[in-house]
């Protein structure tokens, strides 16, 4: 009986302490993203890609420096800025120096500010912020800082590339812009208007509106307006259930044209769109996988599918994050001095296995890379999403998109 | 003009769907005094069960069986959960259903994962019924209207024309008396709870393919159902119907027409301030009706509670 | 009339609830010392951050319980008052920074409180005319409205990314710049103590006492010369004030406020926290806040399924211990008074430890099922309770199943004995 | 001549079509003990509720010490010195006996909605409450939750709450309903004791209590007062006889 009590006490204690027990030799990357709640699917899938990328690209090849492995430590932020800040503190206390986050620009904003303050106040435990998906342009403009690196293209760059492709279609006369009512939705709408009016002044913007985020049950009324406006193209930044709801609704209610968007693949969405949206949805993204760029990428994807049959590599930039971080750490010769690592990352040119180069622009820490516009289809698909037979096939590519785009960032270096 | 007709049909579909949820909830509330926070969770369960069944046996079998399973689960929740909590009073009951809603959402994620399910409209209904000025009305929507109207008629018939309905109506107002007359009131409670949740299940089955089947679907709908029954008047079936349709149409029309706040304010003689971008209230000026469409029901509810606490058709104050 | 009171009221625990708590200093001194000493036990910054979060939640939960527990008003949108207080403080912080005003940071929460109270006065003016469903639904509606406004009215709420500031730009307060977490910790602890004492004292004032009376029987209270509506209104404003203080503390601790501070989830969480701790006792929400914060931050580091366990725990609490954790603790007061608590120790060990082990076994089964279904293909290895094993073999399932069955079985078998011991311990005199 | 403590003029109340109170004129003097009797359904409780503004009257006025009470809320009427008990026991079940009484004292001692006074610091409150507990013989039950008292004790407590505020017009609605003989005697004595020098208006079924306590009696039948007077006069009144006998006969059918 006594032993049991003791065991209980010990286990209760270690439950609390357990999280802080560390493997000394690993280079740890905190993955702070939603692993529970409504956005958990994206978060979990991202985590799998990180873990796979770390193992596949670094650990199985002998690690970095003198054999140090990458270890991804997941933290569930429940997509709450408050929880993210708590988890950030926990991660820093565990000796983690690299923070990866991507879902929600709101969280990214909170994290980048908290990290800047932390690094200023605690020079002994500085951390780097590897932003792999939050695309609010402000993060590399007004709100930029030395510790933040963005590996995805920001919303403006994506819209620039997307409208380049759209502008080439002479038959397009009327465009409808619709998005979620928050910073990202507004940034997309503003960028769309600016780009279209300069690239195709003849195109009429027949609608530009915002709807509440995550609250719309039925998109039919919006679909009616879009159909009634006679639009022959839709631009939207919607994601998640809002994207699916909007997309299905406009198609169902008689809209015939294409939908240009950012996030409409993977996480169950490709499967849910299925046949109905074939050739209708066009996505802007980096790192297209159909057709696959390199044999290395093919092997990687095959290995990933073998390990996660239900998963998708829908954020291939995660592999770039791992690859570039490994290269920077090798270059700096240390993983502990994050300033040295950050200086390596600045201006780095990296050959991605998904095709093309990645250039980490030093003036704002925005990665410049090839952008692809793909179509939702089941033809010529090597790697489908959600095991649905459907995937995204790259139709056109903008090389090193927005290489010379201006930035308002005034980087302060330590 | 044609667009108005289309909007009327769309609003009707939304409203009737809402009604299927609120009908059960208002029955449960008026009988047991429980605001069942888990009601929308049963709606979600209906969709998921129907999806699972449709994989094996097709949509129609799902439409029949899934609500039954949901109803049995609902009855079970009443029998083994609520009845126990009932003795502690209404607040713990309400909090119980609140916790239940959280747990169901977690369990659904546990079983089906976090992704959206590919639950689709059956092929036989996947065509355009007719078009009005280029706006197609899918056959499935017509089907939804028929199902919900059928359920409303059935419910009305049972409640007003059958003996069971009489007992239920009596138990609504005088549970003690009905019990004294030898009726098993706990059994009636369980039955009503089961039927109410089964109705939510039906709503889930037919809404799943159009509104999406995902773990957040209950949360999206959650509180709007309460709003409906409060506006309609607690315990009133007609009130629930009217309020559902009202909300359906209000939200549909608000989304369909871009009415900006500045238009309204200018209309009543207040001029737009010159330096709008520096103005403290700039965001209020630029608000448009689609932006606030989904919070209009809440505004309506607060106003109704202030000026007519019994709701549109309610007989007693909430 | 008596249906609200089904638990055996002859127990002194119920007597405590009935509110004859006298103002004793003992627990307050213990609490103050605990607050002072905690940072020396848990020294890491993350522990401080978690404790800060805990104390903020404590203030918020206590303020919430002023309504739910003391006033019998169920609010579904209470995050609004804390959030608005916080947003106001954030703006104030930025204003101070922009204009270089001489304003000591530690006073900031007071202004959050005043703003929260001001808003509560507006809403309370029409919502407090009834308790019950009407109050609850108005609070829900107002909560949804403000939450929706937070993304529409960008000028004040900053949209999705919220508004942020820097607490260190204000004037140093007696040489403290609030650069370090520990300084923030003591600032929050100070406000926690102050608010808790004030809230406790509020419950001892005439209006606080009448809040209880109105909760129990609004009509009778009317015939004692008190307007039930005004009593509710005062409670509501006081609650809004302390919520606003919690918001101000949040602003200082996190230096950012976002939409999540206002939304329905936050409002729901505080209801869970308060009820989990126990609404019938002043200290109930404190326990609830501590327990919930630990579950949320520490348990979620251990398992993705934390929310299932929290949901289960919560349901079990509502079903079996409607008095919450505090009620569970206070149930033992009579036995302690009778000096018979010692007789409970062995039966507890015999029942609760196997029970706990059984529950852990069930958790293991849940975790294994989850791993079996959702883990990567080929990833058969999982680690649970410091043992690593293959989730695709029979053995671990068998072991977990047996542990669960035996644990729960033993607990079930010994439960009658525990019940007996319980009855015995609560019988005065007795035939021992 | 001094104004009456309570004066009703042409008081009427209808619920829908049913007229429950059909025009009541009644004047009750200061320090008078007045009982209202009548068969079941005569409208006695409704009359009480009209006087205390639980329901608004359809017509007529209620004057307390010559002051019209129209449009006042129950709590405002209470502040003017009128206090009542209820037919169904109406106390604060989760609070202690002591606190029940103390709450009843708060307003009259001038605490109003204050949140800067601590109730247990006030000796006047504690002593006042204890004095009342002593009067109603519940001192040793002081710290028990009120909901746990016996029925008779709860009724006694309710009377204590009713008189605690120092009102000079006390209205008791069937204070002895559902009690045994010994309990009834106990409560009757108690009422005697605590309403010394105050105006008492009570509804009561128990004729023993009524004739023992009341200075004057009014008989209410179908919403009308058919007789008012000294107990012995009322007893002899043929209309009263008829009303009670008639009601008894009807009840037999």
Automatic annotation (TrEMBL), chain A:
Tell me the InterPro entries matching this sequence: BCAA_transport, Leu-bd, Peripla_BP_I
Q: Where is the Leucine-binding protein domain?
A: 27-373
Can you tell which superkingdom this protein's organism belongs to? Answer: Bacteria
* UniProt cross-references to Pfam families, sorted A to Z: Peripla_BP_6 (PF13458)
Per the record, the GO terms for biological process are: amino acid transport
UniProt keyword annotations, A-Z: Amino-acid transport, Signal, Transport
- Tell me where the signal peptide lies: 1-24
Tell me the protein family, please.
Answer: Belongs to the leucine-binding protein family.
Kindly provide the name given to this protein in its UniProt entry: Amino acid/amide ABC transporter substrate-binding protein (HAAT family)
Q: Which organism is it from?
A: Sulfitobacter mediterraneus
TrEMBL record, chain B:
**Principal place where this protein is found?**
membrane
Transmembrane domains' residue ranges:
12-37, 49-73, 94-112, 139-160, 181-207, 213-231, 238-257, 295-314
Matching InterPro entries, A to Z?
ABC_transp_permease, BCAA_transport_permease
Where does it localize? Cell membrane
The alphabetized UniProt keywords are:
Amino-acid transport, Cell membrane, Membrane, Transmembrane, Transmembrane helix, Transport
GO MF entries: transmembrane transporter activity
Give the GO cellular component terms, alphabetically: plasma membrane
The biological processes this protein is annotated with in GO are: amino acid transport
Instruction: Return any one Pfam family short name.
Output: BPD_transp_2
CDD domains in the record: TM_PBP1_LivH_like
User: What membrane topology is annotated for this entry?
Assistant: Multi-pass membrane protein
Q: What family does the entry list?
A: Belongs to the binding-protein-dependent transport system permease family. LivHM subfamily.
Record's protein name: Amino acid/amide ABC transporter membrane protein 1 (HAAT family)
TrEMBL record, chain C:
Q: What is this protein called?
A: Amino acid/amide ABC transporter membrane protein 2 (HAAT family)
A Pfam family for this UniProt protein?
BPD_transp_2
Q: Which UniProt keywords apply?
A: Cell membrane, Membrane, Transmembrane, Transmembrane helix
Localisation: Cell membrane
Gene Ontology cellular component annotations, sorted alphabetically = plasma membrane
Q: Which PANTHER family match?
A: ABC TRANSPORTER ATP-BINDING PROTEIN (PTHR30482:SF17), HIGH-AFFINITY BRANCHED-CHAIN AMINO ACID TRANSPORT SYSTEM PERMEASE (PTHR30482)
State where it is primarily located: membrane
Bilayer-crossing regions: 21-42, 48-67, 79-96, 102-123, 135-157, 184-202, 233-257, 269-295, 307-331, 351-372, 393-413
TrEMBL record, chain D:
Gene3D superfamilies cross-referenced by the UniProt entry: P-loop containing nucleotide triphosphate hydrolases (3.40.50.300)
| GO cellular component annotations of the record | plasma membrane
Keyword terms, alphabetized? ATP-binding, Nucleotide-binding, Transport
Name-wise, this protein is Amino acid/amide ABC transporter ATP-binding protein 1 (HAAT family)
UniProt xrefs under SMART domains: AAA (SM00382)
Gene Ontology molecular-function annotations: ATP binding; ATP hydrolysis activity
Q: Indicate the segments forming the ABC transporter domain, all copies.
A: 6-247
UniProt cross-references to PROSITE patterns, sorted A to Z: ABC_TRANSPORTER_2
Cross-referenced InterPro entries, in alphabetical order? AAA+_ATPase (IPR003593), ABC_AA/LPS_Transport (IPR051120), ABC_transporter-like_ATP-bd (IPR003439), BCA_ABC_TP_C (IPR032823), P-loop_NTPase (IPR027417)
Lineage, top-rank taxon, reads Bacteria
């Amino acid at each position: 009986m006594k032993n049991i009590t003791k065991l209980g006490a010990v286990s209760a204690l270690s439950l609390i302490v357990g999280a802080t027990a560390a493997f000394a030799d690993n280079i740890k990357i905190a993955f702070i993203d939603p692993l529970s709640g409504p956005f958990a699917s994206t978060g979990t899938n991202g985590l799998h890609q990180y873990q796979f990328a770390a193992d596949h690209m670094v650990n199985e090849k002998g690690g970095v420096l003198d054999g140090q492995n990458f270890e991804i430590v997941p933290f569930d932020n429940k997509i709450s800025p408050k929880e993210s800040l708590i988890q950030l503190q926990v991660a820093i206390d565990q000796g983690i120096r690299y923070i990866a986050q991507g879902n929600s620009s709101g969280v990214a904003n909170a994290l980048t500010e908290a990290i800047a303050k932390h690094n200023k106040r605690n020079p002994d435990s500085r951390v780097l912020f590897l932003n792999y998906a939050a695309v609010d342009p402000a993060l590399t403009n007004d709100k930029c800082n030395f510790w933040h690196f963005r590996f995805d293209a920001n919303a403006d760059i994506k819209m620039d590339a997307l409208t380049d492709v759209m502008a080439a279609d002479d038959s397009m006369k009327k465009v409808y812009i619709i998005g979620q009512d928050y910073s990202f939705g507004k940034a997309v709408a503003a960028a769309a208007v600016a780009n279209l009016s300069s690239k195709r002044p003849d195109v009429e913007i027949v609608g530009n509106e915002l709807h509440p985020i995550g609250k719309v049950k039925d998109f039919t009324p919006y679909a009616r307006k879009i159909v009634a406006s006679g639009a022959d193209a839709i631009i939207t930044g919607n994601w998640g259930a809002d994207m699916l709801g909007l997309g299905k609704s406009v198609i169902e209610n008689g809209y015939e044209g294409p939908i240009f968007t950012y996030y409409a693949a993977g996480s169950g969405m490709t499967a849910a769109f299925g046949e109905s949206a074939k050739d209708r949805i066009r996505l802007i993204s980096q790192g297209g996988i159909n057709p696959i760029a390199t044999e290395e990428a093919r092997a990687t994807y095959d290995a990933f599918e073998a390990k996660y049959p239900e998963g998708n590599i829908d954020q291939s930039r995660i592999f770039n994050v791992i690859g570039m971080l490994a290269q920077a750490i090798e270059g700096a010769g240390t993983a502990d001095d994050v300033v040295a690592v950050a200086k390596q990352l600045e201006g780095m040119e990296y050959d991605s296995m998904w095709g093309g180069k990645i250039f980490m622009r030093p003036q704002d820490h925005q990665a410049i890379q090839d952008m692809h516009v793909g179509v939702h289809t089941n033809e010529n698909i090597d790697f489908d999403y959600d095991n649905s037979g459907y995937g995204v096939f790259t139709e056109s590519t903008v090389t090193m998109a927005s290489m010379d785009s201006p930035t308002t960032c005034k980087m302060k270096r330590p | 003009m044609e667009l108005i007709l289309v909007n009327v049909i769309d609003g009707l579909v939304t409203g009737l769907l809402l009604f299927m949820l609120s009908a059960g909830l208002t029955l449960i509330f008026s009988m047991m005094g429980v605001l069942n926070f888990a009601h929308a969770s049963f709606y979600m369960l209906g969709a998921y069960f129907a999806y699972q069944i449709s994989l094996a046996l097709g949509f129609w079998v799902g439409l029949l069986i899934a609500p039954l399973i949901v109803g049995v689960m609902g009855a079970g929740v009443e029998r083994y959960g609520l009845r126990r909590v009932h003795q502690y009073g209404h607040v713990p009951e309400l909090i119980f259903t609140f916790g239940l809603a959280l747990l169901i959402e977690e369990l659904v994620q546990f079983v089906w994962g976090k992704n959206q399910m590919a639950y689709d409209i059956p092929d036989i209904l996947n065509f355009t019924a007719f078009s009005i000025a280029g706006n197609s009305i899918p056959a499935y929507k017509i089907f939804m209207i028929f199902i919900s109207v059928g359920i409303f008629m059935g419910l009305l018939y049972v409640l007003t024309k059958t003996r069971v309905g009489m007992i239920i109506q009596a138990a609504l107002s005088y549970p003690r008396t009905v019990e004294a007359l030898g009726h098993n009131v706990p059994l009636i409670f369980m039955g009503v709870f089961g039927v109410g949740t089964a109705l939510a299940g039906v709503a889930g089955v037919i809404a799943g393919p159009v509104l999406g089947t995902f773990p957040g679907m209950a949360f999206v709908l959650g509180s709007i159902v309460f709003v409906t029954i409060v506006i309609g008047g607690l315990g009133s079936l007609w009130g629930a119907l009217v309020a559902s349709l009202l909300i359906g149409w209000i939200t549909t029309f608000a989304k369909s027409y871009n009415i900006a706040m500045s238009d309204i304010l200018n209309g009543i003689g207040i001029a737009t301030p010159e330096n709008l971008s520096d103005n403290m209230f700039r965001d209020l000026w630029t608000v448009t009706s689609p932006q606030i469409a989904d919070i209009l029901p809440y505004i309506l509810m607060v106003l109704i509670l202030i000026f007519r606490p019994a709701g549109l058709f309610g007989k007693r104050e909430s | 009339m008596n249906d609200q009171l089904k638990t055996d009221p002859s127990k002194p625990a119920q007597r405590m609830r009935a509110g004859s708590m006298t103002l004793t200093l003992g627990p307050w001194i213990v609490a103050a010392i605990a607050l002072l000493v905690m940072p020396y036990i848990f020294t890491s910054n993350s522990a401080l951050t978690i404790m800060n979060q805990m104390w903020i939640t404590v203030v918020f939960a206590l303020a919430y319980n002023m309504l739910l527990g003391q006033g019998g008003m169920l609010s579904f949108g209470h995050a609004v008052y804390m959030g608005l207080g916080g947003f106001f403080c954030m703006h104030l912080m930025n204003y101070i920074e922009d204009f270089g005003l001489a304003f000591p940071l530690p006073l900031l929460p007071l202004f959050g409180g005043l703003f929260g109270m001001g808003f509560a006065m507006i809403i309370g003016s029409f919502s407090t005319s009834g308790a019950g469903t009407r109050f609850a639904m108005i609070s829900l509606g107002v909560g949804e409205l403000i939450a929706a406004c937070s993304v529409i009215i960008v000028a004040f709420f900053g949209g999705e990314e919220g508004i942020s500031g820097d607490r260190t730009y204000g004037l140093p307060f007696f040489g403290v710049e609030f650069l370090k977490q520990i300084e923030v910790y003591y600032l929050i602890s100070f406000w926690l103590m102050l608010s808790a004492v004030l809230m406790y004292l509020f419950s001892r004032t005439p209006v606080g006492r009448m809040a209880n009376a109105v909760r129990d029987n609004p009509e009778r209270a009317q015939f004692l010369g008190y307007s039930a509506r005004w009593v509710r209104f005062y409670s509501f404003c006081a609650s809004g004030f302390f919520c606003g203080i919690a918001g101000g503390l949040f602003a200082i601790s996190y230096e950012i406020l976002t939409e999540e501070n206002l939304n329905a989830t936050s409002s729901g969480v505080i209801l869970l926290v308060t009820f989990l701790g126990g609404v019938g006792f002043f200290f109930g929400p404190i326990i609830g806040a501590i327990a919930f914060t630990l579950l949320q931050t520490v348990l979620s580091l251990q398992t993705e399924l934390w929310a299932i366990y929290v949901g289960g725990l919560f349901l079990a609490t509502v079903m079996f211990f409607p008095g919450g954790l505090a009620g569970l603790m206070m149930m033992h007061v009579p036995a302690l008074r009778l000096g018979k608590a010692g007789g409970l120790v062995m039966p507890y060990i015999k029942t609760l430890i196997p029970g706990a082990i059984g529950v852990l076994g069930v958790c293991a089964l849940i975790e294994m099922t989850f791993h079996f279904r959702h883990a990567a293909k080929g990833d058969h290895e999982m680690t649970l309770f410091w043992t690593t094993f293959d989730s695709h073999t029979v053995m671990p399932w068998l072991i977990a199943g047996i542990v669960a069955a035996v644990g729960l079985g033993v607990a079930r078998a010994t439960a009658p004995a525990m019940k007996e011991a319980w009855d015995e311990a609560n019988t005065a005199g007795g035939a021992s | 001549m001094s104004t009456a403590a309570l004066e009703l003029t042409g008081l009427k109340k209808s619920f829908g079509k049913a007229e429950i109170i059909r025009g009541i004129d009644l004047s009750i003097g200061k320090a008078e003990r007045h009982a209202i009797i009548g068969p079941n359904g005569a409208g006695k409780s409704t009359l009480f509720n009209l006087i205390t503004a639980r329901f608004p009257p359809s017509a007529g006025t209620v004057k307390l010490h010559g002051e019209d009470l129209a449009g006042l809320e129950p709590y405002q009427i209470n502040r003017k010195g009128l206090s009542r008990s209820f037919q169904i026991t109406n106390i604060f079940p989760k609070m202690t006996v002591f606190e029940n009484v103390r709450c009843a004292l708060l307003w009259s001692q001038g605490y109003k909605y204050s949140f800067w006074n601590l109730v247990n610091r006030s000796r006047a409150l504690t002593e006042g409450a204890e004095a009342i507990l002593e009067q109603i013989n519940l001192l040793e039950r002081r710290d028990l939750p009120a909901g746990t008292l016996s029925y008779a004790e709860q009724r006694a407590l309710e009377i204590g709450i009713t008189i605690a505020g120092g009102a000079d017009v006390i209205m008791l609605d069937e204070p002895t309903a559902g009690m045994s003989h010994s309990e009834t005697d106990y409560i009757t004595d108690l009422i005697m004791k605590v309403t010394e020098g105050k105006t008492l208006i009570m509804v009561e079924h128990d004729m023993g209590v009524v004739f023992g306590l009341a200075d004057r009696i009014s008989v209410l039948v179908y919403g009308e007062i058919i007789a008012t007077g000294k107990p012995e006069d009322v007893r002899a009144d043929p209309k009263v006889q008829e009303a009670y006998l008639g009601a008894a006969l009807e009840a037999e059918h």
